[in-house]
């Protein structure tokens, strides 16, 4: 739970211990905005702040599932300028993400990696309980492929954000979020699974 603002102080603490980290970021939005309503810190700005503070190894940042409305004609320009690997949702439609994650494992190497998963990376057909839903997102199976594709990486932390149960009376979003967090725990270094 919590909005994506929580990732910023977490990455400050992680970088204090490990230095700049790689990032696997699943989201409908880049969260690299500069300001909103005059504020520099809100749920649409955490990764810009992280770049500015040198918390991320930008050559090892993956953003996957991006889509939706934007205030900018080129919403991924900032990310690409930083060296992020940007994978819009439409590049994921109707296919397995196992090959992508094999490439990502090579990109991340054995250096520290953080996983940040915004539930709105998934299509609202599966996860409507979020504050900023965007149509045409990832499927739960693709979410599992991404998370399970991180197994073997030097994962130093993870989060799952933006679950808003009050927007989904069925409880499916909370169930999906809990299962994705469980999957993240299973890919942490040293965790043995059957």
**Rg estimate, integer Å:** 15 Å
The CATH superfamily bears the name Ureohydrolase domain
Distance between the termini: 28 Å
Count of helical regions: 6
Low-confidence residue ranges: none
Keywords:
single chain; 194 residues; Arginase, Chain A; 5 strands
Question: How would you describe the overall organization of this protein?
Answer:
InterPro entries: Ureohydrolase, Ureohydrolase_dom_sf. Keywords: Hydrolase, Metal-binding. GO terms for molecular function: agmatinase activity; metal ion binding. This is SPEB protein. The chain is built from six helices and five strands. The chain is of the alpha/beta class and 194 residues long. The chain has a single domain, classed as Arginase, Chain A (3-Layer(aba) Sandwich), CATH 3.40.800.10. Strands 3-2-1-4-5 form a five-stranded parallel β-sheet, with helices on both faces. Helix 2 links the parallel strand 1 and strand 2. The longest helix has 15 residues. It is globular and about 40 Å long. It starts with 6 loop residues before the first helix and ends in an 8-residue tail after the last helix.
